[in-house]
């Protein structure tokens, strides 16, 4: 009887130990991740593999992410998540409000802007900077290791696999920089500012024009005139535009570019098409840009 009692006690202690040790992990054994936007969700899914399930909130490539309104389903997902990934810097304030509504004690939050030392008012399109993408991938992996330490080796391997998957994306950036570094380009919005810098391209559009459009405001008249003159005077070789944000002013700029035989290349804020891998989406846009730059020579 004493041996049986000790066996039962040992079993109970084992159950308690597992419960305590796994308190930061969901009962199903999967790490539940909610990403505010599909680009971070794609990266989180690739880094987590079969050990995580990822729900991305903003996924529609035809909608403006700045105008997203959260739902009760979003609130439930945030409350039950093991890890929430938000872009920050004012880009997804709806997510910050959902976090403030409460959640589990073990929930971790990755605010990309805070990770990068950025704040509201800074350009929030961090996923267009390859160095930032690498930093975020490292931080997500660290979060997975913390939440599910038993699978740390698995997550390390997934991080190495993701580095391989990113190589065509990084190679394309290097190729464009080598071939076209210094080429003047224009953009209707600030979404491409980080990428233009990484590519070594000279983005000449007035910042106040791009920032105003990104924030849903009318650009200052002086900035509009300057941009129009740059395009009409063929002072740029390629025009980039956000396919998810169209206004009368940006449409007019595109029309002027077409009239002066300046190629236009569309870019999106969220994955396009929906469900594409982050790196495939980015490479497709970069290849289109490279072709336009070559044609404009």
What's the arrangement of secondary structure elements?
Layout: H1 2-21, E1 31-37, H2 38-48, E2 52-58, H3 72-80, E3 83-86, H4 93-100, E4 108-111, H5 112-115, H6 130-147, H7 152-180, E5 184-187, H8 193-199, E6 202-203, H9 207-214, H10 221-232, E7 238-242, H11 248-259, E8 264-267, H12 278-295
Helix content: 40-55%
Strand-residue fraction? 5-15%
Biggest sheet details: 4 strands, parallel
Cα separation of the termini: 89 Å
Report the average pLDDT across residues. 90
Question: Which stretches are poorly predicted, pLDDT < 50 over at least 5 residues?
Answer: 1-28
Order of helices and strands: HEHEHEHEHHHEHEHHEHEH
Overall description:
With 297 residues, the chain is an alpha/beta fold. 53% of the residues lie in helices and 12% in strands. The protein has a four-stranded parallel sheet with strand order 2-1-3-4, with helices on both faces. Helix 2 (38-48) links the parallel strand 1 and strand 2 (52-58). The model is unreliable at 1-28 (pLDDT under 50).
